[in-house]
Amino acid sequence: MVITHHGGQCFKVTFGELTLAFDPVAKGGTPPPSRFGADIAFVSRDHPDMNGISEVTYGEKIPFAVTGPGEYERQGIVIQGFLSHSAYGLAKGKQEALNTMYAVHIEDMTLVHLGALADEELSKEARENFDEIDILFLPIGGSGVLSAAAAHELAVSLEPKIIIPMHWSGIGEPRALESYLREAGNGGEKLDKLTLKKKDLAGREGSILILTP
What we know:
Blueprint: E1 2-5, E2 11-15, E3 18-22, E4 40-42, E5 64-66, E6 70-74, E7 77-86, E8 97-106, E9 109-113, H1 124-129, E10 135-139, H2 148-158, E11 162-166, H3 176-184, E12 189-191, E13 194-195, E14 207-211
Parallel strand pairs: 3-4, 4-5, 9-10, 10-11, 11-14, 12-14
Antiparallel strand pairs: 1-2, 1-13, 2-3, 6-7, 7-8, 8-9
């Protein structure tokens, strides 16, 4: 499995011939639009910074779009989406927007992408299903998503093996990453990309890996 960061909350996850896109950036979004082909695309929040399905429709790849809560199975991947709330990029007069958190079971690993999450407390259903998280994509940027402090507290409670911070590059509050690392008391490890197999997770407990776009 290879994971790369494409700004904002967008991550490309590839294994073999299969490519997943989490929160691809649309044209008109704040970060540059995503430009790669995906087999499955996940949208947590219906906002141009996260809903660029057309931008990951590329070449021969036309993605299966997952845009809300529910259970899905596609190409051997089991997907669960859980309802939550966001306060990111709200239209005037709106107090909150819907956000979907995704648990993706792939290659004997569980990836959880929290999307543009603002809720500091997760639903009982999500808590019960977020079990033994291998990789947690965690929004840390404030301004409508979790603050650095709230993100750290939630991550500690979920006990993932690896934490990948997001919502700090291209969007989010200035110096959000520095604030989060200070809260976590951990400098983290910076990588251009993460290449990972199940065996590589042995001994990891809350390791913070910063993927640079």
